[in-house]
Structure formats: C-alpha cells, structure tokens
Amino acid sequence: MDYKPMISSIEFRGNDKTKDYIIEREIQHQINTVLDSSLAEEDRNRLDNLGLFSEVKWQAVPLENGTAVLQYSIIESIQKTPPAAFPTYDEKTGWSITGGWIIQNFRGRNQHLSIGGSIGAEDSYGLYFSDPWMFGNHVSLDLELGRTFFEHLFLDRSVASSGFELELGRWFGEHVKTMIGTGLEQKKFSNPLDTLSFSYIAPQWSIAYDTRDIFWNPGQGFHFLHFFYWKLDRTNEEKSALIWRQSYSTFISLGSNPKKLVLAMNITAHRRWGGKHDVWLKYFGGSYSVRGWPLPDRGSYSPSRQSFRFGHEYVHASLELRKDIIPKFAT
Question: Where is the POTRA domain (predicted)?
Fold first, then answer.
C-alpha cells in the first residue's frame, strides 16, 4: 500500500550556498495536504532543471504525530572555479588557450557570471551574465558582450566580430516560454583582396513549448521552438535579413531502468529572407547538424565537390537512441 501521510512541513538539506528561496519558489507541493508523489517528483525535476545541483532526491520522513516532513536532499554542483587557462579544441576553429572565471551560482541566487577569453586559433574575450528570475516570477535576463577573431571555416577570409546582446524571457505556465531581445553587432570578413563589412541592429523573438522532464537529459516530453531574428544593417538596407528557425523534438522513454534508454527525434528548418551573402552560408556537418559528414573546409566548399552541403536555407532531421552510460555525480 502506498505511503500517503499528511505533509506538515517541507525541508531542504544540502544547499550550503544556494538560498532557500531559490528552492522554495520551485516547490508546488503544499503543506497540510496528503503526499502527492507525482507532484513531489515534478518538484524534484524542477530543482534539477535549475542546473545548480548534481543530485536531487526527495523522501517523506514520518513524525511521531502521524504526519510527515517532505524532505529534499541536495548535492550542489561545483559552482565556482578559480581563474585558470587550459588548452581547448573547437571543431570550428582548432586549438586555443582559453581562460576565464566562471561563477555558476553567483551570490547563491542562481545567477551565472562568466568572464573569459582565448588566444590561438580563436582570439576572443567576453562577459556573460544571466538571472532566470531577475524581475520576479520567472522573468529572466541574459546579457552578453564580447569580441572574437578567427579564420573562416571554409571561405578564404578571416572574421572579426564584436557585439552586445540583451534578452528578456518569461515562462507562461509550466510549458510555454517566450523571449524578446535585441543586439548590436559588427562583423568584418577580410582577405587580401577586399573586406566585407556588416553593422546591424538585431531584434529577436522566440516562443517555445517544452514538456521535457529534465532539460539537460530528457527522458520524455516535447520541445517545439520558433525563433525569429532580424538583421537590420545600419549602412546598407540590401544587407538586412529576416531569419526564421523552427525546431520540433520529441523524447520517448524505452523502459524503466535508472540508466535511461530514450528514443529522440528532431526536425529543424531554417528560412532566410533578404540579404544572402556567401559569408552567411549555413552548412551540414559536425556535431550540430548531420554528424555523418565532417566539418567543411575550403576543399569541400568548392562547387564541384560538395556544394549540396551549403546554402542559406535548409531542413534536416535526426533520429537518436540515447543511453546513459556513466551516471551523473559531482559536476
């Protein structure tokens, strides 16, 4: 017979740094009600989705008076790293020395702050700050600024880019999230013959429907996204463009083993209206699109070789069978 006591209080253990209210605002189970194990599990998933904890568990602890305490036990992730630099490899650019300072749970308030840069194949520096509850009730703020320089992946050009981006987001209910933002960006694509310059304002808007149980490792649910991005060039209207990206994903659990076995499917489409210069070409290949092809280079870009992999608009689909091999411990 299921144990369904009256819950007289809710406690949290293990959150040495994270403020109690950060956890409390994710808990929907009420006190002075009968234990609802489904709701307690959903609360556990919401805490896991904060990205602050390596492990979250819940249990009902019986009391002498016949009621119980709903107790959430938490192991906090590594949330602050000392400033350091390491060799890193990026499949788009190659090897660089990358350094920075990352605070994952700034002030114990689920804020993220990072400052960093790199030298080598990619020369860059930047600052990023985010708070998923900056203005109350799931109204988020994301702010990013930086500069980067690298050799273009498949064109005979170097790329210098600098920009600033500000985004505000809000959840509506449990499953609908919207975002509105804007940015300023300057890009130069150069070679010994000429330089292509772009300077634009970039308003953007997105809406997502998300029923995934765990964002970083879903076992079930859907994720549908529509993202609109305008590039309004301040110097030449013909360079301006509107981009629409849509993505549809579903995750189906196969079995009840603690090490998840999940069937994952996705279809993504990308449309572009307006300026279509070669420097904005998309491609298939690498770990973020069609993985059967390697990343492109200047040889594969040649029209006589693999021109079908390049363009301004595309549709691609994926089918994956995912299996947990190593369980998540301290991260």
Answer: 6-74
